[in-house]
């Protein structure tokens, strides 16, 4: 049975500092490195043929640690911005609590948790979905259809968009889904392009 593995990068420095990170290239913390190693241990007995990740260092560093942990540092790795985190635009780098004080808790909640409302200068989850899913269909799904086990190491919102697609979730359902850092999610892929 073909498998698809999804991993959100380990804790980043700005996760730790409660900042909007988005497309900023912030690396993982010591805890994030530990989470990546734990993800590798969880995937130790799985066969992984190819990996996909974003252009951001926190995802790439997490992937590197996972592959070292499972003893497969040389499998093909495809890097693409289509898998980048959702852009938070003008909010990137700002502390989330301070932003809530400035713009109001309700407005920040809408920016963070609505499906189709983007923060100033940034992307909504719908915008993220609209770049992640065509990339998945054109570049990742063919690898699964060819019988390869695929690992994707990316970000909370790019993975949330993909999970919405794979599980046929509504916007309301996906907004309630939390994705823990460094905790692998495994799907089985059948030959009718369906998740089991």
TrEMBL record:
Substrate binds at residues 8-15, 21-22, 58, 85-88, 96, 112-113, 156-157. The keyword Signal does not apply. The record marks 155 as: Transition state stabilizer. It catalyses: (2R)-2-phosphoglycerate = (2R)-3-phosphoglycerate. Pfam families: His_Phos_1 (PF00300). It comes from the Bacteria. CDD domains: HP_PGM_like. Pathway: Carbohydrate degradation; glycolysis; pyruvate from D-glyceraldehyde 3-phosphate: step 3/5. GO terms for biological process: gluconeogenesis; glycolytic process. The active site is at residues 9, 85. PROSITE patterns: PG_MUTASE. Keywords: Gluconeogenesis, Glycolysis, Isomerase. GO terms for molecular function: phosphoglycerate mutase activity. It is an enzyme of class 5 (isomerase). Its EC number is 5.4.2.11. Belongs to the phosphoglycerate mutase family. BPG-dependent PGAM subfamily. HAMAP family: PGAM_GpmA. PANTHER family: PHOSPHOGLYCERATE MUTASE. NCBIfam families: pgm_1 (TIGR01258). Catalyzes the interconversion of 2-phosphoglycerate and 3-phosphoglycerate. This is 2,3-bisphosphoglycerate-dependent phosphoglycerate mutase. It comes from Sphingobacterium detergens.
């Amino acid at each position: 049975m073909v498998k698809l593995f999804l991993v959100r990068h380990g804790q980043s420095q700005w996760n730790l500092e409660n900042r909007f990170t988005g497309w900023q290239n912030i690396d993982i913390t010591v805890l994030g490195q530990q989470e990546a190693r734990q993800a590798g241990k969880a995937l130790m007995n799985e066969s992984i043929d190819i990996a996909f990740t974003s252009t951001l260092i926190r995802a790439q560093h997490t992937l590197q640690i996972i592959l070292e942990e499972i003893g497969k540092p040389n499998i093909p790795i495809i890097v693409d911005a289509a898998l980048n985190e959702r852009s938070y635009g003008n909010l990137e780098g700002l502390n989330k609590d301070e932003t809530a004080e400035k713009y109001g808790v309700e407005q920040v909640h809408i920016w963070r948790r609505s499906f189709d409302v983007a923060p100033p200068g940034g992307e909504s989850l719908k915008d993220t979905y609209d770049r992640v899913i065509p990339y998945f269909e054109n570049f990742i799904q063919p690898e699964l259809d060819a019988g390869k086990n695929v690992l994707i190491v990316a970000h909370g919102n790019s993975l949330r968009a993909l999970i919405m697609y794979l599980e046929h979730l509504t916007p309301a359902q996906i907004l309630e889904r939390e994705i823990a850092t460094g905790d692998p999610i495994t799907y089985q892929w059948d030959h009718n392009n369906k998740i089991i």
